[in-house]
Structure formats: structure tokens, C-alpha cells
Design goal:
alpha+beta, about 30% strand, Aminopeptidase
Length: about 160
């Protein structure tokens, strides 16, 4: 697959159904628990509305009208401080290994800086190796314990980056 027709752009209403399916498919692929992860989030079926307004934004990877991945940023839940969270970064297998992860990360962190956030936090799982390598390469550092309270108690790897 070539990168020629692939665009990273902000989510629109017509993307809701596809991105929800992408996220669920990736979580199933990795055998992620359906409780205490993004799988159970009610926001999955209304991502455009969830990330509309306020200091939050969600981006999708559009390949000729087919959504093959996405990621977003929003203020960290239940946390006092100028920290955002990188949220729901999931790519279908066909979107991996092409440098799209770095491009998506750049888009999200640029938006976070534009919103005025000082730090970006994320939660992931130990067996999502490629994602963890990307986060480390982009300057995210491991934390001993979670920040805020995202409700994702099954995600037990926590990282943060200065913006």
C-alpha cells in the first residue's frame, strides 16, 4: 500500500462508525480485556462528539475513504494540572510499519502544544511493544504509577512527556 492516498485529518461525523470498528478490531487482535480498557468506553461510538470543543481533538488516518487508524488528545481526567492525555491511538495492521505512528504522534503533540498543555500523559499495555517503542522514541518516559483516573485499570504502563 502506498502512502500517496493516506491523509491524517481531524475526525468528522461520517468517521464515527469506522473508527469505533478499528479500535475494537485492534483491541480484539491484541487480546485486550474488554473491561477496564477503551473497549468498554461509551465514547467509542460517538468519537466526533466526544472530541468536539474544549481542549480536545481526534485525528483519523484516511486511506481513500477507509479509516485505518486514529489517535486523540484531551485533558487528563480527574487531574489538576496542565496535562493532556494521548488517547485511543490504534492502527489496523495495514497502517503499521509505514511511519504513520510518528506522523500521528506529531499531529497530536502539535495540537496539544497549540492548546497550551505542558505535558502529555498516556496509558498502554505491556504487550503493545511497537507502540511502547514509538512512545519512548518520541521522548515519553515511564512512570511508576498512573496519573489522574481514566478508568482504564487494565492499562498498567504509564508514560509522560514534556511538551
Amino acid at each position: 500500500m502506498s502512502n500517496n492516498n493516506i491523509v491524517i485529518r481531524e475526525i468528522t461525523l461520517k468517521d464515527n462508525k469506522q473508527i469505533a470498528q478499528v479500535i475494537r478490531d485492534v483491541l480484539i487482535e491484541f487480546g485486550v480485556p474488554k473491561v477496564g480498557t477503551a473497549y468498554a468506553d461509551v465514547s467509542l461510538d460517538k468519537m466526533t462528539e466526544t472530541y468536539h470543543g474544549g481542549k480536545s481533538s481526534y485525528f483519523v488516518i484516511d486511506n481513500n475513504g477507509k479509516i485505518i487508524g486514529g489517535a486523540g488528545i484531551a485533558p487528563l481526567d480527574n487531574f489538576k494540572g496542565n496535562v493532556c492525555e494521548l488517547q485511543k491511538m490504534y492502527f489496523l495492521p495495514e497502517a503499521r510499519g509505514m511511519g504513520l505512528g510518528k506522523q500521528m504522534m506529531d499531529a497530536c503533540l502539535k495540537k496539544a502544544k497549540a492548546f497550551g498543555f505542558e505535558k502529555c500523559y498516556l496509558e498502554t499495555m505491556p504487550y503493545m511493544d511497537d507502540a511502547r517503542k514509538l512512545y519512548a522514541k518520541e521522548g515519553f518516559e515511564s512512570l511508576e504509577k498512573p496519573m489522574g483516573n481514566t478508568g482504564h485499570f487494565s492499562c498498567n504502563v504509564w508514560m509522560i512527556k514534556e511538551l
